[in-house]
Amino acid sequence: MKKLVLVLTMLFAFTIAFTSCRDEKKTPEDKIEAAIEDVKTEIKESSEEISDDVEDALEDVEDEIEEIKEEAKKDK
């Protein structure tokens, strides 16, 4: 009797473990919404990277301008 209960418990545990991990069926609308959200996230991340690149470029230009000013003062 104990073995039967143990076997049924193990069978139940395995059944729950494997059936609870299934992906749900998505409707086309759900897939479209998920794709739109993914694109929004990618655009946001890309825009942040571009913003950082622009800021770095501006800093480089400012540094170059300062160097040119210093060299011009030395040449006087």
Measure the end-to-end span: 103 Å
- DSSP E strands, number: 0
- In which range does the helix fraction lie? over 70%
Spans of 5+ residues with little confidence (pLDDT < 50)? none
* Total number of domains: 1
Strand content bin? under 5%
User: Major sheet: size, sense and barrel closure?
Assistant: none
Number of helices: 2
What is the averaged pLDDT score?
A: 84
The sequence of SSEs as H and E is HH
Oligomer: single chain
Radius of gyration: 31 Å
Q: Could you say which overall geometry the principal axes of the C-alpha atoms support? A: elongated
Supply the helix-strand structural class: mainly alpha
SSE map:
Layout: H1 2-19, H2 28-75
Can you describe what's shown?
The structure is a single chain. It is built from 2 helices and no strands. The chain is an all-alpha fold and 76 residues long. The chain has one domain. The N and C termini lie far apart (103 Å). Keywords: Coiled coil, Signal.
Concise synopsis of the structure shown:
With 76 residues, the protein is mainly alpha-helical. The chain has helices at residues 2-19, 28-75.
Short key terms for the protein model shown above:
76 residues; signal; mainly alpha; coiled coil; 2 helices
